Automatic annotation (TrEMBL):
Assigned EC number: 3.4.14.10
Subcellular location(s) per record: Secreted, Extracellular space
Protein name, entry field: tripeptidyl-peptidase II
Pfam families in UniProt: Peptidase_S8, Pro-kuma_activ
Cofactor(s) this protein requires: Ca(2+)
Major subcellular location class: secreted
Classification via CDD domains: Peptidases_S53, Pro-peptidase_S53
PROSITE patterns per record: SEDOLISIN
Source organism per UniProt: Lentinula lateritia
Peptidase S53 domain residues: 214-570
Length: 570
């Protein structure tokens, strides 16, 4: 029982608070929390006056409806297959409701936050800047300074934050908050190509043995039957994303084409799109191995397809190297910007670096693009079963975005008689469930695998990669010098170029582009060269063995252009 005098005091205090404009504290609940990742250390508390640029992701009005539509337009045999949505049609599903925007804005306003910017493809993010002391109070968080152990990454993050109970239905996540992403590593360039003078010679119908040591566009044309006939449809485009100040050089592309694609003009180039302060400086010292690789093996393989390089600069606050910003940019363009969009790794992360809320946010952004007919591909990573890069581990580490079921993950092979590349990352997501298009082939593989590596991976997660292509001894030009690179980041532009050329034929025939690829790919497993040898070691194991059919090293296999083209109906 509360005595009258105490009750009066409480009322008096409440009245004083209301008079002073201090709102009643809402009931709060933890919205996201995690353990400190092993690759980071807490190095102290930042000044409470330190300003933080924060964003709240608002819930979509009908994400379930958008996903259903995504599967309808992406699945062969469905009555809606290929009937991709317009921007306005997508916005009906993806934009937050007025009630959501109003409710969240009111909460920020009542806490003195009035300078709010609406951002995102569908006005689905609210951005604002507050001191850390305010962020800690508002979200019941404890933002700290963290540093990557043995690495350069410095972050201000929290291991937990809360939201008002009555707003959790309106907010997906706070960002940045609980994601700990390390700097991305790229492929290694080996100069002085053995036995190569950058001269393209006549090739037999089957790739010559020289392709075992040096892979060129001609090798790929021979291995996969990729045509040299130029594309004809300017509306069928391929985009290459660039991050971490990786810049392709037009001089290097000219040398590459002049030596290895003598049948097309060496003046063939690419368009440039920038965001977040991105650029493409052209001094030789600015050459980027990853960017040169990506451009040379799209311009040089997807003959005649218009190529755009999207340079994402460092002026972003998403903390994950612009991955959010580029998807907001793509999804926010009114006209479908690209018939085939390629975003690929070395640009990728270990799945544990991101919380499940952020992984789902990005994954849904890729799904949103798929409803509009965009194909998205990522390299699977270069650490075998140990993640995006080789590292110590006791259980297998899946990579992201490859674990997202709404995109196509590309592994790597090597040699003319193809076998899997040992670094090719593959496995099973711990966040995303297995999609229906994988049910039969993955079950078949797991049955054949038996008890091997039991307990080291999820047997129910989304499996990756989906497909593969050459990824060892791939020749590029960087800074005016010929060299070789390895990685699944070689395989991804190669496979994307195959899809771009097929889309060109589809558009020329008056048909829709393929859009999200996986239901089509898994429905046509015989359109691939099956890779049945090799494995992907890591975590003190031999990893997963390649087997007949789908496997978590090379997926369905490498592309047979003629068979894929026939399966697409052109």
């Amino acid at each position: 029982m509360v005595r009258l005098s105490s009750y009066a005091a409480l009322l008096s205090g409440f009245a004083s608070s209301m008079a002073a404009g201090i709102p009643t504290r809402r009931a709060m609940a933890v919205h996201d929390e995690r353990e400190l990742p092993v690759h980071f250390a807490n190095v102290g508390t930042p000044s409470p006056d330190t300003l933080m640029n924060l964003k709240l992701a608002l819930t979509a009005s009908d994400m379930a409806g958008l996903e259903k539509t995504f599967w309808d337009v992406s699945t062969p045999g469905n009555a809606l297959y290929g009937q991709h949505l317009s921007f306005e049609e997508t916005k009906v599903f993806a934009a937050p409701t007025t009630d959501t925007v109003t409710a969240v804005t009111a909460w920020l306003n009542e806490n003195g936050i009035n300078d709010i910017t609406t951002t995102g493809a569908f006005d689905d993010w609210l951005a604002f800047t507050v001191p850390i002391s305010t962020a800690n109070s508002l979200f019941e968080a404890e933002f700290q300074n963290f540093t990557e152990i043995g690495g350069p990454t410095q972050l201000i993050r929290t291991l937990s934050y809360s939201l008002p109970v009555d707003l959790q239905q309106h907010i997906n996540l706070l960002h940045p908050s609980t994601d700990f992403v390390r700097n991305i590593k790229g492929p290694i360039f080996r100069a002085s190509v053995p036995g190569s003078s950058l001269n393209n010679t006549a090739r037999a119908l089957t790739a010559p043995s020289s392709c075992n040591s040096v892979v060129t566009p001609a090798c790929l044309q021979d291995l996969y039957g990729i045509p040299t006939t130029p594309a004809t449809q300017t509306s069928s485009k391929l985009a290459v994303s660039g991050f971490i100040e990786q810049w392709p050089q037009t001089a290097d592309l000219k040398t590459f084409l002049g030596s290895l694609r003598t049948d097309i003009s060496s003046a063939t180039t690419f368009a440039l799109q920038t965001l977040d302060g991105g650029s493409d400086p052209q001094a030789a010292r600015d050459a980027g191995i990853e960017a040169n690789l990506d451009i040379q093996y799209t311009v040089g393989v997807a003959t005649g397809v218009p190529i755009t390089f999207i340079s994402v600069g460092e002026d972003n606050t998403d903390g994950i190297d612009g991955f959010l910003d580029i998807m907001n940019n793509i999804n926010g363009q009114i006209a479908p910007p690209f018939v085939s969009l390629l975003i690929f790794s070395s640009y990728g992360f270990d799945e544990p670096d991101l919380t499940s809320t952020m992984a789902n946010q990005l994954c849904n952004a890729y799904m949103t693009s798929g409803t509009r007919g965009v194909s998205i591909l990522f390299a699977s990573g270069d650490g075998g079963v140990s993640g995006s890069q080789s590292q110590s581990c006791s259980t297998f580490i899946p990579t992201f975005p490859s674990g997202c079921p709404f995109l196509t993950s590309v592994g790597a092979t090597q040699d003319v008689t193809e076998t899997s590349a040992s670094f090719s990352s593959g496995g099973f997501s711990n966040i995303f469930a297995r999609p229906s298009y994988q049910t039969t082939p993955v079950a078949t593989y797991l049955t054949a695998l038996g008890s091997t590596n039991s307990g080291k991976f999820s047997t129910t997660g989304r499996a990756f990669p989906d497909v593969a292509a050459q990824g060892v001894n791939v020749e590029i030009v960087d800074g005016g010098e010929a060299g070789l690179v390895d990685g699944t980041s070689c395989a991804s532009p190669i496979f994307a170029s195959v899809i771009a050329l097929i889309n060109d034929r589809l558009v020329a025939a008056g048909k829709s582009p393929l859009g999200f690829l996986n239901p089509f790919l898994y429905a046509n497993p015989t359109a691939f060269f099956d890779i049945t040898t090799g494995d992907n070691p890591g975590c003190n194991t031999n990893g997963f063995p390649a087997k007949a059919g789908w496997d978590p090293v090379t997926g369905l296999g490498t592309p047979n252009f003629a068979s894929l083209l026939a399966a697409a109906g052109v």
